[in-house]
Design brief:
The chain is α+β, with helices and mostly antiparallel strands and 551 residues long. It is built from 22 helices and 14 strands. Strands 9, 10, 11, 12, 13 and 14 form a 6-stranded mixed β-sheet that branches. Strands 4-3-2-1-8 form a 5-stranded antiparallel β-sheet, with no helix packed on it. A 3-stranded antiparallel β-sheet has the order 5-7-6. A hairpin with a 4-residue loop joins strand 2 and strand 3.
Length: 551
């Protein structure tokens, strides 16, 4: 028999479809069967039940269910999966929770509440809209609106769009799709996407979401924050390139511009020279001619060098010794073909820094010295790209020269305001120097710019929260990092420390087993020998947490 409604506290009780919902107990019941759910799962259900039949955006759910905590989209996805499983719902033929692509979720089952109860009131938005309209009218009255000539050559928003004219337009770039399974075509598509991200981020009048070139590739998801979206397809047929690029307004779905390029593969760089400036000129962005010229600068004009560089980036991302050696070989080949390819020098520097950091070489000091020489060479060749500053900063951080690292990162962010990795590394350096509280706002900025961020972003956040003593948020972010890369040693080290500090002995033991599996002879003290942290108090705190585990 279904659970009677009067078994639920009067102020909380409700029924969703066939299920009686007991929020205080985190329990769902139907036909004499009760299912326990996690608190976050119940919280998501209640948020949806407060607006039955309406689409609730992913960002709304994240902010309401995880207030004050920086988590990724995967956290919400996993909770929805658990909720559907508890309700017995089929995502392909939903009777409870419908996914609305690129928007959020909608509760399609009926919601019943006892007489005298109602869903919590929603905050009215009327004042904000009136204020926005008044501000817009004031700007027009003051003559600060764009000139007629600018309006003629740039896109105006759709009839239903409301734009904050005080902020630069936001743009997301979807990973360009390779139309075949050819590995070279996939690398080419990834390279074109990453280069376009880098080019567009040179503009101070444009906010580019998801800019993270040090990953060598963009995320697989696209930020829902951006007003405009660039997407495309790539096809390589022998020595010919077919590239189709689209610019879309996200709110209305209108295709604002598209262009097809069909030419020799050797024309790739000429196409890239045109692409960034063309897209910018179609947007309501204030961009100087100098920025447009800088946007069209290529990193190399040698196609084979470019291909070797992309192969090196892909191998470097593996963060394994064998992949590091492959990356080094590819970067060297790229440099052999183009002695002025600064990004290849930066990549090569990172392979030597990885040897030092991961203790993959007997000559650790020599590896770090070589990394520094190569990073400095890259920056001298081209001081106009973020990678060269980022790599110099990273190597300085490994040398425990944190002020120098911060100086180069500040320079990179002056040149590239949307450089998410710059903020993330700056946050990491702040924690290494004993300032974990300063890391949190920097990481929030990085994650806003790159909402599809990878495991390292969550590791940086988790590490900062651990040293701040906020074990709950440390665990949340470190678990997110572990989901994205379960084989990264440092994540398990901090997770083990968090579980010990929180008194969770079984979980701490499990993390210790993972550490020993990844590195059988692991020693916390030896690991810290090549760790960039200079704050002795933090190092002591970490070792004390690992000590009960024999680490």
């Amino acid at each position: 028999m279904p659970l009677a409604m009067d078994a639920v506290p009067a102020d909380n009780r409700l029924r969703v479809g066939d299920w009686a919902v007991e929020p205080d107990l985190n329990q769902l019941s139907t036909q004499g069967r009760a299912v326990k759910v996690e608190p976050k799962t119940m919280a998501v259900l209640l948020q949806l039940a407060n607006r039955p039949g309406q689409v609730v955006g992913r960002e709304t759910l994240l902010s309401q269910v995880w207030p004050g905590v920086v988590v990724g989209q995967d956290s919400l996805t996993q909770v929805v999966i658990k909720l559907r499983k508890a309700l017995g719902d089929d995502p392909d033929r939903p009777t409870y929770i419908q996914t609305v692509t690129k928007r959020g979720y909608r509760l399609v089952a009926p919601v019943l509440r006892p007489a005298g109860t109602a869903a919590p009131p929603r905050r009215p938005h009327r004042i904000r809209w009136i204020a926005g309209a008044a501000a817009l009218a004031l700007l027009i009255a003051m003559g600060l609106w764009w000139s007629t000539g600018q309006q003629a050559r740039r896109l105006s928003p759709g009839p239903d769009s409301v734009v904050d004219v005080t902020q630069p337009p936001t743009l997301a770039i979807a990973p360009f799709e390779a139309l075949s399974q050819d590995s070279q075509e996939s690398l080419l598509a990834r390279g074109i996407t990453a280069d376009l991200l880098s080019d567009l981020s040179k503009s101070s009048g444009l906010s580019v979401m998801g800019f993270s070139p040090m990953e060598g590739r963009p995320g697989s998801e696209v930020s829902s924050h951006a007003r405009y979206l660039v997407s495309g397809t790539v096809q390589r047929i022998d020595e010919r390139l077919r590239l189709h690029v689209f610019l879309t307004e996200r709110a209305t779905g209108r295709q604002l511009w598209s262009e097809r390029f069909d030419s020799s593969l050797t024309d790739l760089f000429a196409i890239q020279d045109e692409l960034g400036p063309k897209i910018v000129r179609m947007l309501p962005a204030k961009v100087s001619e100098a920025e447009l010229r800088r946007m069209a600068q290529r990193h190399t004009r040698n196609l084979r060098a470019y291909e070797h560089f992309q192969q090196g980036q892909a191998a470097l991302l593996l963060r394994q010794k064998s992949g590091n050696e492959t990356a080094r070989l590819m970067f060297r080949r790229a440099i052999d073909l183009d002695k002025t390819f600064a990004r290849a020098y930066s990549g090569l520097a990172l392979t030597y820094a990885a040897d030092y950091r991961n203790q993959w070489t007997a000559d650790a000091a020599g590896a770090l010295g070589r990394a520094f020489e190569l990073a400095r060479t890259a920056n001298e060749i081209n001081p106009d790209i973020p990678e060269t500053y980022w790599t110099l900063a990273y190597v300085h951080a490994q040398r425990r020269e944190h002020q120098q690292a911060l100086k180069y990162l500040e320079r990179s962010l002056t040149l590239y305001p949307s450089f998410a990795d710059g903020y993330a590394l700056m946050a990491s350096v702040k924690t290494f120097a004993g300032q974990p509280a300063a890391s949190i706002p920097l990481m929030r900025t990085a994650m806003r710019l790159n909402p599809t961020s990878g495991y390292l972003y969550f590791l940086v956040l988790g590490r900062a929260y651990f040293f701040l003593g906020n074990l709950e948020q440390a665990r949340i972010n470190l678990e997110e990092a572990s989901k994205r890369n379960p084989e990264y040693l440092e994540t398990h080290i901090y997770l083990a420390a968090v579980e010990v500090a929180g008194g969770n002995t079984p979980s701490a033991g499990w993390e210790a087993d993972q550490i020993r599996f990844l590195e059988p002879a692991f020693s916390g003290r030896r690991w810290l020998d090549n760790y960039p942290m200079t704050d002795d108090g933090q190092k002591t705190k970490l070792l004390q947490a690992l000590d009960p585990l024999g680490l």
